[in-house]
Amino acid sequence: MKIKWLMVFVMGVSIVKGFYGQESGREIRQNYQQTTVAPAPVSQVAAGYEWSGIILRDGSVWEFGYKGIFDYDISDDEMRDVKWTLTISRGKRLAGGLTTRALVSENNVLYVKAGRLFLLGVDEKKVGKWYVTQWMVSLSNVVDVTFGGFHTLVLRPDGSAWGVGEGEYGVLPALNKMEGKRYGEWFQVLTNVMKIRAGYWTSYAIQSNHILWVAGRNRWGAIGKGDYREAGYRWHAVLSNIVDAAGGKKYSLALGGDGRLWATGDLFGTNRWVVVLSNVWKISGGPLHCLVILSNRTVWGFGDNRYGQLGTGDTNARTNWTKVFSNAEEVTCGYLHSLVVTADGVLWRTGSDHRGVVDTSYFWGEDIDAYVTRWTNGWW
To answer: Which pTM does this prediction carry?
Structure first.
């Protein structure tokens, strides 16, 4: 496996050289292993649109489902992994978006793949195509990565946050309204950051003083400033004593250091930040549903459930927090499904089973007919 990772910055524009002198944008190939059973024990879990990814305790990275590409010249089967597939031998941080995947290696190298490389800091003209199915080097010196609907944020060891992709509605505040987007070129968006997160139309940054800053679209009250006016191309300080954040299309969540969960947005019927739960340990948000783990390791869900993504045994939305699982260590929300890891490292899932359509039909009101409504540790 070819590993490439040296990063040089010249006036804010990144030039990447590889471990073997190769430039960023080259694909990393290796012999795949596959299994029909979810590997274990799992240490980290990630989910995107019709895609699930895990990192095992030995560091190996496995993927299942939609590869993030849509091409009429290849078959539907080629656009998805129908078995759990080992795609890289070591990793420490994994993330998935609508059509994007990213992995931070043990050496703090950012690997990316899937559709629309411009959302991943890769020049599509230079690569000669708009998607790849193999991991590709994008950036070095990265410790975390997160995806919004059409933008990507990374965190670097010096506390600087960098972004790339669509900048509409101020989700990438370093851009102005005239620029609107930044394709294939990483740029700095904030400093003194200890944690970054993203919602569909929002960006979240928690600085070292635990102040939560939010940027992006406020049409549904997700900024939490008491109105529905767009928030402009700048960061907004909204809460203090915050340790984590999450969001979707019409809401934002913030976890306080005292275990209180704050929420804002139309999903919760408010455009101001309000406390909605206590004794919360971990949080995750999908486009229209969210899951949290309480300090007693129970999982509670809220929001959309039309594909069983809350695991309640039905497809009825929940407008009150509902207990859906017990004995959880990790939780993540995908677009149409959810994943939980138990204390013994076993992966459980509910919602879409990744056999649905491979475009964004969920947001156009079409049906996906392959889903489950109860938590299961079985796959196909």
So the answer is: 0.88
